[in-house]
Structure formats: C-alpha cells, structure tokens
Specification:
Elements: H1 10-15, H2 27-48, H3 51-63, H4 66-83, H5 98-156, H6 166-170, H7 176-193
Helix pairs in contact: 3-5
Length: 194
C-alpha cells in the first residue's frame, strides 16, 4: 500500500484562497462544491442579518411592487372622492387634504429609510461582484502564463502555428484600469448620442 501524496502545508492552505488540485473527471464535483459553498455563504449572510434588516427588506420589496402602486391609486382616489363629497354615503373627514399630505409625507420618510437600509445590504452583493472580478483577473493571468508556456513548447517542437501573429496580443496581460477606461469612454459616447 502506497502512502498518500504529500499535501501542502495545512497552515498555509487554511490561509490560502485555493483548494486542492482537480483530479481527472472531478469537474462536476468541483462545480457542485463551489455552488454549495456559495449557497452556504449566502445562507450565512442571511442568518447574520438582523430581524430589523429583514423586515426593512420585506417592506422595500413590497413597496417596490405594482400591488403597492395599485393600492395607493385606490386609496388616494377614495380619499379624494370622499373628501370632495363625490361619495355621498361617507362623510368628508379631510376637506383640505392636510391629513393626506401629512400621511404621505411620513410614509415617504419611512420608505426612503427602508430603501437606504436595503441598499446597505446590496453592498454585500457589490463585494461578491468584486470577488468575481478578482477571480477573473487571476484566471486571465494564469491563462496568459499557460499560453506563454504552450507557445514556448510549440516553438521548441517546431510547430509552425506557434509563430501566428494573433498570439502576440493574447500573450499580453490585461490592464483592468484600461478596460474600465474603454468601457467608460464607449458608455459616454452612447449616452451623449441619445
């Protein structure tokens, strides 16, 4: 019986953002592991959210729906109809609409607060997007390095396609700030032409 292959230093591995290497045929299990890790991470974030935050998110979700808009249309139309005495069987209670103005002002204050609370939670999604960018940049760097090695091996073996000029651009590392500048440039042109 052979001893298992030595693994990386466990202390270094615990601090590292990497996992063990893939074995042939392991892609689907790694994919499943990654999906499960993300699910667990989201569940952990949701569990850490205070009950006040969850209530605020629920209110924001409801107030951002069309049902909320329809309810307001009905309530305001009824309020106006009653207080302009268009509805004869209900007595007017706010002929100057001061109560309506006060209620809608207070509602606006609370709704804006709930939206701000929800936006704070949305910052966590921004962190996940930033993680996505970092992983993509690391992948791009690794792929560029692999391309360098592949071209060197191909040249050593005398493979003519290794001298393809299109590879020279692929061998360059991507500068994310230049990509962002280009996106902003093209975005500005689109906005000004509309």
């Amino acid at each position: 019986m052979t001893a298992p292959a030595p693994t990386k230093n466990k202390v270094a591995q615990a601090d590292s953002p990497t996992t063990d290497a893939l074995r042939p045929g392991d892609f689907s299990s790694v994919l499943d592991r990654n999906i499960e890790a993300l699910k667990q991470r989201r569940k952990g974030e949701e569990a850490k959210a205070s009950s006040e935050t969850r209530v605020a998110e629920g209110i924001t979700r409801f107030t951002g729906s069309m049902i909320f808009v329809y309810m307001h249309i009905v309530i305001v139309l009824l309020w106006v109809g009653i207080n302009l005495e268009w509805v004869s069987f209900v007595p007017a209670f706010d002929k100057t609409f001061v109560i309506l103005a006060t209620v809608t002002s207070v509602e606006g204050i609370f709704l804006s607060t709930f939206v701000l609370i929800s936006q704070n939670r949305a910052a966590a999604a921004d962190r996940r997007a930033e993680l996505d960018v970092q992983v993509n940049l690391l992948s791009e760097h690794e792929i560029t390095q692999l391309l360098h090695l592949t071209i060197a091996v191909a040249e050593k073996l005398g493979v003519r396609e290794a001298r393809d000029p299109s590879f020279s651009e692929l061998e360059e590392h991507v500068a994310p700030e230049k990509v962002l500048d280009k996106i902003e440039e093209s975005g500005t042109e689109v906005e000004t032409s509309v």
